[in-house]
Design goal:
binds phenylalanine, mainly alpha, about 450 residues
Protein backbone atom coordinates (compact mmCIF):
# COMPACT_ATOMS: atom_id res chain seq x y z
CA UNK A 1 0.00 0.00 0.00
CA UNK A 2 1.19 3.50 -0.83
CA UNK A 3 1.99 5.67 2.18
CA UNK A 4 -0.35 8.64 2.86
CA UNK A 5 -0.61 11.76 4.95
CA UNK A 6 -2.83 10.89 7.90
CA UNK A 7 -4.58 14.19 8.61
CA UNK A 8 -5.46 17.47 6.89
CA UNK A 9 -3.30 19.28 9.41
CA UNK A 10 -0.43 16.97 8.46
CA UNK A 11 -0.77 17.88 4.78
CA UNK A 12 -1.00 21.56 5.62
CA UNK A 13 2.13 21.66 7.80
CA UNK A 14 4.08 19.64 5.25
CA UNK A 15 3.07 22.00 2.44
CA UNK A 16 3.61 25.11 4.53
CA UNK A 17 6.91 23.61 5.68
CA UNK A 18 7.99 23.28 2.08
CA UNK A 19 6.88 26.79 1.20
CA UNK A 20 8.29 28.56 4.25
CA UNK A 21 12.03 28.48 3.95
CA UNK A 22 15.14 30.47 3.20
CA UNK A 23 13.07 32.25 0.59
CA UNK A 24 10.99 33.94 3.29
CA UNK A 25 13.78 34.79 5.68
CA UNK A 26 16.65 35.49 3.39
CA UNK A 27 15.35 36.46 -0.05
CA UNK A 28 12.09 38.25 0.77
CA UNK A 29 13.47 40.88 3.18
CA UNK A 30 16.31 41.92 0.91
CA UNK A 31 14.16 41.99 -2.21
CA UNK A 32 11.66 44.08 -0.32
CA UNK A 33 14.50 46.30 0.82
CA UNK A 34 15.65 47.02 -2.71
CA UNK A 35 12.22 47.24 -4.38
CA UNK A 36 10.27 49.89 -2.51
CA UNK A 37 9.20 48.13 0.71
CA UNK A 38 5.43 48.00 0.96
CA UNK A 39 5.08 48.65 -2.78
CA UNK A 40 6.85 45.36 -3.41
CA UNK A 41 4.62 43.59 -0.90
CA UNK A 42 1.49 44.76 -2.71
CA UNK A 43 2.70 43.54 -6.11
CA UNK A 44 3.88 40.31 -4.55
CA UNK A 45 0.50 39.68 -2.92
CA UNK A 46 -1.38 40.16 -6.18
CA UNK A 47 0.95 37.76 -8.00
CA UNK A 48 0.80 35.13 -5.25
CA UNK A 49 -2.95 35.00 -5.00
CA UNK A 50 -4.00 35.57 -8.62
CA UNK A 51 -1.30 33.69 -10.42
CA UNK A 52 0.81 31.40 -8.28
CA UNK A 53 -1.97 29.97 -6.16
CA UNK A 54 -3.80 28.60 -9.25
CA UNK A 55 -0.48 27.14 -10.42
CA UNK A 56 -0.03 25.47 -7.05
CA UNK A 57 -3.53 23.99 -7.32
CA UNK A 58 -2.70 22.66 -10.79
CA UNK A 59 0.33 20.83 -9.45
CA UNK A 60 -1.72 19.51 -6.59
CA UNK A 61 -4.42 18.26 -8.98
CA UNK A 62 -1.90 16.39 -11.16
CA UNK A 63 -0.42 14.67 -8.10
CA UNK A 64 -3.62 13.85 -6.26
CA UNK A 65 -5.51 12.68 -9.34
CA UNK A 66 -2.75 10.31 -10.44
CA UNK A 67 -1.44 9.19 -6.99
CA UNK A 68 1.99 8.47 -8.45
CA UNK A 69 5.42 10.10 -8.80
CA UNK A 70 6.06 13.25 -10.84
CA UNK A 71 7.09 11.53 -14.07
CA UNK A 72 4.44 8.82 -14.15
CA UNK A 73 1.70 11.26 -13.09
CA UNK A 74 1.63 12.91 -16.50
CA UNK A 75 1.72 9.55 -18.28
CA UNK A 76 -1.20 8.28 -16.22
CA UNK A 77 -3.30 11.36 -16.92
CA UNK A 78 -2.35 11.51 -20.59
CA UNK A 79 -0.98 8.23 -21.93
CA UNK A 80 -0.30 9.64 -25.40
CA UNK A 81 2.47 12.14 -26.05
CA UNK A 82 5.59 12.94 -24.10
CA UNK A 83 4.14 14.74 -21.11
CA UNK A 84 6.26 12.61 -18.78
CA UNK A 85 9.10 14.94 -19.73
CA UNK A 86 7.44 17.69 -17.68
CA UNK A 87 7.86 15.45 -14.66
CA UNK A 88 11.50 14.84 -15.58
CA UNK A 89 11.95 18.62 -15.68
CA UNK A 90 10.43 18.85 -12.22
CA UNK A 91 12.73 16.17 -10.82
CA UNK A 92 15.76 17.89 -12.36
CA UNK A 93 14.67 21.25 -10.95
CA UNK A 94 14.33 19.76 -7.46
CA UNK A 95 17.79 18.17 -7.65
CA UNK A 96 19.40 21.38 -8.90
CA UNK A 97 17.70 23.37 -6.19
CA UNK A 98 18.62 21.08 -3.34
CA UNK A 99 22.26 21.10 -4.41
CA UNK A 100 22.78 24.68 -3.33
CA UNK A 101 19.95 24.81 -0.79
CA UNK A 102 21.83 22.30 1.40
CA UNK A 103 24.89 24.54 1.38
CA UNK A 104 22.90 27.49 2.74
CA UNK A 105 21.22 25.03 5.11
CA UNK A 106 24.74 24.11 6.24
CA UNK A 107 25.51 27.77 7.00
CA UNK A 108 22.41 27.90 9.22
CA UNK A 109 23.74 24.96 11.26
CA UNK A 110 27.18 26.58 11.40
CA UNK A 111 25.65 29.82 12.77
CA UNK A 112 23.35 27.92 15.11
CA UNK A 113 26.28 26.02 16.60
CA UNK A 114 28.14 29.31 17.16
CA UNK A 115 25.03 30.98 18.57
CA UNK A 116 24.48 28.16 21.06
CA UNK A 117 28.09 28.34 22.21
CA UNK A 118 27.92 32.16 22.27
CA UNK A 119 30.78 32.41 19.80
CA UNK A 120 29.08 34.38 17.05
CA UNK A 121 31.27 37.25 15.79
CA UNK A 122 31.41 40.50 17.67
CA UNK A 123 30.33 43.71 16.07
CA UNK A 124 32.57 44.59 13.16
CA UNK A 125 33.90 41.10 12.53
CA UNK A 126 30.77 39.55 11.00
CA UNK A 127 31.96 40.01 7.47
CA UNK A 128 35.18 38.11 8.08
CA UNK A 129 33.26 35.43 9.95
CA UNK A 130 30.86 34.91 7.08
CA UNK A 131 33.69 34.87 4.54
CA UNK A 132 35.41 32.17 6.60
CA UNK A 133 32.21 30.11 6.89
CA UNK A 134 31.82 30.17 3.12
CA UNK A 135 35.41 29.70 2.08
CA UNK A 136 36.86 27.18 4.52
CA UNK A 137 36.41 23.93 2.57
CA UNK A 138 36.30 21.49 5.50
CA UNK A 139 33.90 23.65 7.47
CA UNK A 140 31.45 24.29 4.65
CA UNK A 141 31.45 20.64 3.58
CA UNK A 142 30.98 19.36 7.12
CA UNK A 143 27.88 21.46 7.78
CA UNK A 144 26.45 20.86 4.30
CA UNK A 145 26.73 17.10 4.84
CA UNK A 146 25.15 17.30 8.28
CA UNK A 147 22.23 19.21 6.80
CA UNK A 148 21.79 16.67 4.00
CA UNK A 149 22.08 13.76 6.43
CA UNK A 150 19.38 15.21 8.70
CA UNK A 151 17.12 15.70 5.70
CA UNK A 152 17.65 12.07 4.65
CA UNK A 153 16.99 10.78 8.16
CA UNK A 154 13.50 12.27 8.19
CA UNK A 155 12.79 10.84 4.75
CA UNK A 156 13.88 7.33 5.75
CA UNK A 157 10.87 7.17 8.04
CA UNK A 158 8.45 7.88 5.19
CA UNK A 159 5.51 10.23 4.69
CA UNK A 160 3.30 9.60 7.71
CA UNK A 161 5.97 8.62 10.24
CA UNK A 162 8.67 10.92 8.92
CA UNK A 163 7.59 14.06 7.09
CA UNK A 164 4.18 14.45 8.77
CA UNK A 165 5.41 13.60 12.24
CA UNK A 166 8.38 15.96 12.27
CA UNK A 167 6.90 18.91 10.40
CA UNK A 168 3.91 18.85 12.77
CA UNK A 169 6.25 19.66 15.64
CA UNK A 170 8.59 21.96 13.76
CA UNK A 171 6.11 24.31 12.11
CA UNK A 172 4.27 25.55 15.22
CA UNK A 173 7.66 26.06 16.90
CA UNK A 174 8.77 28.05 13.90
CA UNK A 175 5.84 30.46 14.09
CA UNK A 176 6.15 30.88 17.82
CA UNK A 177 9.84 31.71 17.61
CA UNK A 178 9.58 34.20 14.76
CA UNK A 179 6.80 36.00 16.65
CA UNK A 180 9.04 36.34 19.71
CA UNK A 181 11.83 37.75 17.55
CA UNK A 182 9.46 40.13 15.76
CA UNK A 183 8.27 41.48 19.12
CA UNK A 184 11.84 42.02 20.26
CA UNK A 185 12.66 43.78 17.02
CA UNK A 186 9.69 46.17 16.91
CA UNK A 187 10.26 47.20 20.52
CA UNK A 188 13.83 48.36 19.88
CA UNK A 189 14.32 52.12 20.19
CA UNK A 190 14.29 53.56 16.67
CA UNK A 191 12.32 50.67 15.20
CA UNK A 192 9.60 53.04 13.95
CA UNK A 193 11.46 53.89 10.76
CA UNK A 194 11.54 50.19 9.86
CA UNK A 195 7.83 49.85 10.43
CA UNK A 196 7.16 52.86 8.29
CA UNK A 197 9.25 51.32 5.53
CA UNK A 198 7.15 48.16 5.73
CA UNK A 199 3.81 49.93 5.66
CA UNK A 200 4.36 52.99 3.49
CA UNK A 201 4.62 51.98 -0.14
CA UNK A 202 7.26 53.81 -2.15
CA UNK A 203 6.07 53.44 -5.75
CA UNK A 204 8.92 55.49 -7.12
CA UNK A 205 11.18 52.45 -6.69
CA UNK A 206 8.89 50.23 -8.77
CA UNK A 207 10.21 49.35 -12.22
CA UNK A 208 9.61 46.52 -14.68
CA UNK A 209 12.25 44.62 -12.83
CA UNK A 210 10.23 44.80 -9.62
CA UNK A 211 7.57 42.65 -11.24
CA UNK A 212 10.16 40.13 -12.39
CA UNK A 213 11.64 39.93 -8.95
CA UNK A 214 8.24 39.60 -7.33
CA UNK A 215 7.20 36.77 -9.62
CA UNK A 216 10.48 34.89 -9.22
CA UNK A 217 10.16 35.23 -5.49
CA UNK A 218 6.53 34.05 -5.52
CA UNK A 219 7.48 30.90 -7.48
CA UNK A 220 10.42 30.17 -5.23
CA UNK A 221 8.59 30.88 -2.02
CA UNK A 222 5.49 28.82 -2.82
CA UNK A 223 7.66 25.87 -3.91
CA UNK A 224 5.97 25.63 -7.30
CA UNK A 225 7.55 24.46 -10.53
CA UNK A 226 9.70 21.66 -9.20
CA UNK A 227 7.19 18.91 -8.53
CA UNK A 228 7.25 19.16 -4.72
CA UNK A 229 3.58 20.08 -4.44
CA UNK A 230 2.80 17.45 -7.08
CA UNK A 231 4.68 14.80 -5.12
CA UNK A 232 3.11 15.75 -1.77
CA UNK A 233 -0.27 15.90 -3.52
CA UNK A 234 0.13 12.31 -4.65
CA UNK A 235 0.13 11.26 -0.99
CA UNK A 236 -3.02 13.18 -0.14
CA UNK A 237 -6.33 11.40 0.39
CA UNK A 238 -9.27 11.97 -1.93
CA UNK A 239 -11.46 13.63 0.68
CA UNK A 240 -9.00 16.46 1.42
CA UNK A 241 -9.88 19.87 -0.03
CA UNK A 242 -7.30 21.08 -2.53
CA UNK A 243 -8.43 24.70 -2.80
CA UNK A 244 -8.56 25.13 0.96
CA UNK A 245 -5.19 23.47 1.61
CA UNK A 246 -3.43 25.38 -1.15
CA UNK A 247 -4.91 28.70 -0.04
CA UNK A 248 -3.94 28.10 3.57
CA UNK A 249 -0.41 27.23 2.44
CA UNK A 250 -0.12 30.45 0.45
CA UNK A 251 -1.59 32.47 3.34
CA UNK A 252 0.77 31.02 5.94
CA UNK A 253 3.75 31.46 3.63
CA UNK A 254 2.88 35.11 3.05
CA UNK A 255 2.10 35.72 6.70
CA UNK A 256 5.47 34.26 7.61
CA UNK A 257 7.27 36.42 5.04
CA UNK A 258 5.68 39.50 6.60
CA UNK A 259 6.62 38.31 10.08
CA UNK A 260 10.18 37.83 8.83
CA UNK A 261 10.11 41.40 7.53
CA UNK A 262 8.87 42.56 10.95
CA UNK A 263 11.62 40.61 12.66
CA UNK A 264 14.40 41.94 10.47
CA UNK A 265 13.56 45.44 9.13
CA UNK A 266 12.91 47.34 12.38
CA UNK A 267 16.19 46.04 13.78
CA UNK A 268 18.01 47.01 10.60
CA UNK A 269 16.60 50.55 10.73
CA UNK A 270 17.16 50.90 14.45
CA UNK A 271 20.87 50.50 13.74
CA UNK A 272 20.87 52.88 10.82
CA UNK A 273 21.70 50.21 8.26
CA UNK A 274 20.34 50.44 4.71
CA UNK A 275 17.60 47.90 4.02
CA UNK A 276 19.06 47.40 0.56
CA UNK A 277 22.13 45.74 2.02
CA UNK A 278 21.35 42.70 -0.16
CA UNK A 279 21.85 38.99 0.46
CA UNK A 280 24.33 39.64 3.27
CA UNK A 281 21.52 41.07 5.42
CA UNK A 282 20.98 37.79 7.19
CA UNK A 283 24.45 36.40 7.78
CA UNK A 284 26.42 39.63 8.15
CA UNK A 285 24.18 42.43 9.33
CA UNK A 286 22.05 40.51 11.80
CA UNK A 287 24.91 39.02 13.87
CA UNK A 288 26.20 42.59 14.22
CA UNK A 289 22.83 43.69 15.53
CA UNK A 290 22.46 40.72 17.87
CA UNK A 291 25.80 41.64 19.38
CA UNK A 292 24.45 45.05 20.37
CA UNK A 293 20.97 44.42 21.76
CA UNK A 294 19.97 43.27 25.20
CA UNK A 295 19.32 39.50 25.23
CA UNK A 296 20.89 39.45 21.76
CA UNK A 297 22.65 36.15 22.44
CA UNK A 298 19.38 34.38 23.12
CA UNK A 299 17.64 36.05 20.20
CA UNK A 300 20.51 34.89 17.97
CA UNK A 301 19.98 31.29 19.06
CA UNK A 302 16.26 31.56 18.38
CA UNK A 303 16.84 33.24 15.05
CA UNK A 304 19.27 30.70 13.63
CA UNK A 305 17.09 27.93 14.99
CA UNK A 306 14.18 29.36 12.99
CA UNK A 307 16.36 29.59 9.94
CA UNK A 308 17.47 26.00 10.27
CA UNK A 309 13.94 24.60 10.78
CA UNK A 310 12.59 26.64 7.89
CA UNK A 311 15.37 25.36 5.65
CA UNK A 312 15.11 21.69 6.57
CA UNK A 313 11.33 21.41 6.14
CA UNK A 314 11.89 22.76 2.63
CA UNK A 315 14.79 20.47 1.76
CA UNK A 316 12.76 17.49 2.95
CA UNK A 317 10.11 18.27 0.36
CA UNK A 318 12.73 18.76 -2.34
CA UNK A 319 14.47 15.45 -1.77
CA UNK A 320 11.19 13.54 -1.52
CA UNK A 321 10.54 14.30 -5.21
CA UNK A 322 13.37 12.06 -6.38
CA UNK A 323 12.84 9.55 -3.58
CA UNK A 324 9.23 8.95 -4.62
CA UNK A 325 10.35 8.74 -8.22
CA UNK A 326 13.03 6.13 -7.52
CA UNK A 327 10.73 4.03 -5.32
CA UNK A 328 8.16 3.75 -8.08
CA UNK A 329 10.12 3.94 -11.30
CA UNK A 330 12.95 1.62 -10.20
CA UNK A 331 10.93 -0.42 -7.69
CA UNK A 332 13.33 0.46 -4.93
CA UNK A 333 12.77 0.16 -1.23
CA UNK A 334 12.44 3.58 0.44
CA UNK A 335 15.75 3.12 2.23
CA UNK A 336 17.61 2.44 -1.02
CA UNK A 337 15.87 5.34 -2.78
CA UNK A 338 16.81 7.77 0.01
CA UNK A 339 20.40 6.54 -0.04
CA UNK A 340 20.74 6.83 -3.80
CA UNK A 341 19.15 10.26 -4.12
CA UNK A 342 21.19 11.53 -1.17
CA UNK A 343 24.34 10.18 -2.80
CA UNK A 344 23.64 12.09 -6.00
CA UNK A 345 22.87 15.23 -4.00
CA UNK A 346 26.02 14.71 -1.97
CA UNK A 347 28.16 14.98 -5.08
CA UNK A 348 26.35 18.07 -6.36
CA UNK A 349 26.28 19.70 -2.91
CA UNK A 350 30.03 19.15 -2.63
CA UNK A 351 30.57 21.06 -5.86
CA UNK A 352 28.38 23.91 -4.58
CA UNK A 353 29.94 23.88 -1.12
CA UNK A 354 33.42 24.21 -2.60
CA UNK A 355 32.37 27.07 -4.89
CA UNK A 356 33.47 29.53 -2.26
CA UNK A 357 36.94 28.00 -1.93
CA UNK A 358 38.89 25.45 -3.98
CA UNK A 359 36.42 25.44 -6.86
CA UNK A 360 35.92 29.19 -6.97
CA UNK A 361 37.73 29.37 -10.30
CA UNK A 362 35.71 26.64 -11.97
CA UNK A 363 32.92 28.23 -13.97
CA UNK A 364 29.97 27.00 -16.00
CA UNK A 365 28.56 29.71 -18.26
CA UNK A 366 30.59 32.19 -16.28
CA UNK A 367 29.19 31.14 -12.91
CA UNK A 368 30.46 29.06 -10.02
CA UNK A 369 28.64 25.78 -9.37
CA UNK A 370 26.67 27.40 -6.54
CA UNK A 371 25.46 30.30 -8.68
CA UNK A 372 24.91 28.05 -11.66
CA UNK A 373 22.57 25.70 -9.80
CA UNK A 374 20.82 28.67 -8.24
CA UNK A 375 20.33 30.24 -11.65
CA UNK A 376 19.20 27.20 -13.63
CA UNK A 377 16.73 26.11 -10.99
CA UNK A 378 15.11 29.42 -10.09
CA UNK A 379 15.32 31.20 -13.45
CA UNK A 380 15.00 28.37 -15.90
CA UNK A 381 13.84 24.93 -14.74
CA UNK A 382 11.19 26.04 -12.23
CA UNK A 383 9.38 28.58 -14.42
CA UNK A 384 9.66 26.23 -17.41
CA UNK A 385 8.23 23.32 -15.47
CA UNK A 386 5.50 25.61 -14.09
CA UNK A 387 4.70 26.76 -17.61
CA UNK A 388 4.32 23.21 -18.91
CA UNK A 389 2.21 22.19 -15.93
CA UNK A 390 -0.33 24.94 -16.54
CA UNK A 391 -0.34 24.19 -20.26
CA UNK A 392 -0.91 20.52 -19.45
CA UNK A 393 -3.71 21.20 -16.99
CA UNK A 394 -5.34 23.98 -19.03
CA UNK A 395 -5.16 22.43 -22.47
CA UNK A 396 -4.68 18.70 -22.06
CA UNK A 397 -6.32 17.60 -18.82
CA UNK A 398 -9.18 20.03 -19.37
CA UNK A 399 -11.82 21.78 -17.34
CA UNK A 400 -14.00 18.76 -16.55
CA UNK A 401 -11.24 16.76 -14.85
CA UNK A 402 -9.75 19.82 -13.15
CA UNK A 403 -13.06 20.90 -11.65
CA UNK A 404 -13.88 17.30 -10.76
CA UNK A 405 -10.65 17.02 -8.76
CA UNK A 406 -11.05 20.40 -7.03
CA UNK A 407 -14.63 19.60 -6.10
CA UNK A 408 -13.78 16.08 -4.90
CA UNK A 409 -15.91 14.42 -7.54
CA UNK A 410 -18.64 17.05 -7.43
CA UNK A 411 -19.27 16.76 -3.70
CA UNK A 412 -18.04 20.28 -2.87
CA UNK A 413 -19.99 23.42 -3.88
CA UNK A 414 -18.36 26.50 -5.44
CA UNK A 415 -18.33 25.30 -9.06
CA UNK A 416 -18.12 28.93 -10.19
CA UNK A 417 -14.93 29.50 -8.26
CA UNK A 418 -13.36 26.31 -9.64
CA UNK A 419 -14.24 27.33 -13.18
CA UNK A 420 -12.70 30.75 -12.63
CA UNK A 421 -9.51 29.13 -11.33
CA UNK A 422 -9.43 26.93 -14.41
CA UNK A 423 -9.54 29.93 -16.73
CA UNK A 424 -6.72 31.59 -14.83
CA UNK A 425 -4.71 28.40 -15.31
CA UNK A 426 -5.59 28.03 -18.97
CA UNK A 427 -5.11 31.59 -20.22
CA UNK A 428 -3.53 33.95 -17.72
CA UNK A 429 -0.84 31.79 -16.14
CA UNK A 430 0.95 30.58 -19.30
CA UNK A 431 0.94 34.06 -20.77
CA UNK A 432 2.34 35.76 -17.71
CA UNK A 433 5.03 33.13 -17.10
CA UNK A 434 6.10 33.25 -20.75
CA UNK A 435 6.32 37.04 -20.79
CA UNK A 436 8.26 37.15 -17.56
CA UNK A 437 10.67 34.44 -18.69
CA UNK A 438 11.32 36.16 -21.99
CA UNK A 439 12.01 39.47 -20.25
CA UNK A 440 14.04 37.75 -17.59
CA UNK A 441 16.35 36.08 -20.07
CA UNK A 442 16.72 38.97 -22.50
N1 LIG B 1 9.90 27.50 -0.79
C1 LIG B 1 11.21 27.31 -0.30
C2 LIG B 1 11.71 28.60 0.33
O1 LIG B 1 11.05 29.58 0.36
C3 LIG B 1 12.16 26.84 -1.36
C4 LIG B 1 11.65 25.70 -2.14
C5 LIG B 1 11.43 25.84 -3.49
C6 LIG B 1 11.37 24.50 -1.52
C7 LIG B 1 10.92 24.80 -4.21
C8 LIG B 1 10.85 23.44 -2.24
C9 LIG B 1 10.63 23.61 -3.60
O2 LIG B 1 12.81 28.64 0.80
Amino acid sequence: MRDNFKSSFGVLVAMAGSAIGLGNLWRFPYLMGTNGGAAFIIIYLVLVFLLCLPIMMSEFVVGRRSQVNAVKAFKVLSPKGHWGLVGVLGVLASVALISFYCVVGGWTIDYLVHAVSFTLPEQGSSEGFFAAAVSTPGRTILYTYIFLALTSLVLLAGIKDGIERYTKVMMPLLFLTIIIIAIRSVTLPGAGAGLEFLYKPDFSKVTGNTFLNALGQAFFSLSIGCATILTYGSYVKKQEKIVKLSSLTAISDTFFAILAGLAIMPAVFAFGISPSEGPGLLFVVLPDIFDQIAAGGVIAILFFFVLFIAAITSSISLLEVSVTYLIEACRMKRRMAVLLSSAVCLVLCTLCALSGSVLSDVHILGKTFFDFFDMISANLLMPLCGLFIVIFVGWKLGRKDFVDELSNGGTLPNKRLYNAIFYLVRYVAPLVIAVIMIFGWL
